[in-house]
Amino acid sequence: MFRPLRLTFPLLLAISFQPSLADEAKTESGSTAPDIDTEHIFGFAEGSDIGLKGEREIESVTIGSFGAIGNYNNVDNETSFRYGVTDNLRLSIGTLTDYYNIHGVQGLSDRSSVSFSGLITELRWKIVDRLTQPFGMTLSINPAWRQFDPTSGERSGNYAVPVTLLIDKEVIPNKLFAALNLIYTPSFLRVNGARGHDDSFAVIAAGSYAIAPNIFVGAEIRHENLAENGSLDAHALFVGPSLFYRLSGDFTVKVAWAAQIPDIGATRLDLSIYERHQVELQFAYTF
Q1: Total structural domains in the chain?
Q2: Distance between CA atoms of 261 and 74, rounded to whole angstroms?
Q3: Pairing with 103, which of 79, 122, 153, 179 sits 20 to 30 Å away (CA)?
Q4: CA dihedral 117, 275, 202, 59 (to 10 degrees)
């Protein structure tokens, strides 16, 4: 069983108004960098911006999964260091940490534990620059290794290589942005000596609107599909809001929440494979 990554949502705010979202900077070509970095302003979706050459960022994403059949709760954290090799290429490396609270779930052993789960890397290549073209497009290749199964918490050898196409567009200058993410994740599992191969497919459509210079509110819809050992047998639809807040020129926070609703091909929720609720909390510091 394979669970898609990443989750979190609505909480707090303290409001501060600044004339712009970021200080202006020059790209390699000499053009002015955008005031708005679209990478983090959406919910579970991401924008195509990757920052400038030489820019460094520490990002922490915590995702909670709740409401599956039985008493199943999982919180995972990905903390990464990112570096802009050029204006169009960024590399990153990070750690994965999981908390499992599982009791009375059929097919899973009871457990309550926190563990260092593995390592994750990423290559992000900006193919189309939204500042010079009608839209932006970036390719993300995100290999990850886990020593514990991401669903059950059982010790395993788990390798996944998410490949994501990030597309975004500025619909209303400095106000309204739209994003489309296409995600394919092959995952190779080994649990209790048995090998498995899962493929997950996800499509996310999102929008985000600036209600103040440093605050964006948004909404998105996401459809997940899972093929276990070559058989496409699970799917789920999630919808929910998001909130992005720039606390300062260098530090941002984002919260997002997604709830599963019946999709076109189902009359009920799939709570045996997918969660009822997903919540994401993200912090990013650029220097």
Answers
A1: 1
A2: 20
A3: 79
A4: -40
Pair 208, 42: CB distance under 8 Å: yes
CA distance 238 to 263: 9
Nearest to 237 by CA among 219, 220, 261: 261
Largest CA distance in the chain: 59
Answer whether residue 241 is part of any domain. yes
Domain contains 130: yes
Q: Residue 216: which H helix or E strand, with range?
A: strand 215-228
Residue spans of beta strands (DSSP E) within 162-214: 163-172, 176-191, 194-212
Half-sphere exposure in the Cβ direction for 282 (13 Å, CA):
29
Q: What is the pTM of this model?
A: 0.85
Q: How many of the other CB atoms lie within 10 Å of CB of 224?
A: 22
- Domain containing 166 — which CATH number? 2.40.160.40
Tens digits of pLDDT across the chain (287 residues): 334 433 333 333 333 333 333 334 445 544 445 579 999 999 999 999 999 999 999 999 999 999 887 788 899 999 999 999 999 999 999 999 999 888 877 777 888 889 899 999 999 999 999 999 999 999 999 999 998 877 777 787 789 999 999 999 999 999 999 999 999 999 987 766 667 788 999 999 999 999 999 999 999 999 999 998 767 778 999 999 999 999 988 999 999 999 999 987 777 898 888 899 999 999 999 99
109: DSSP letter:
-
Range of the domain at 195: 56-286
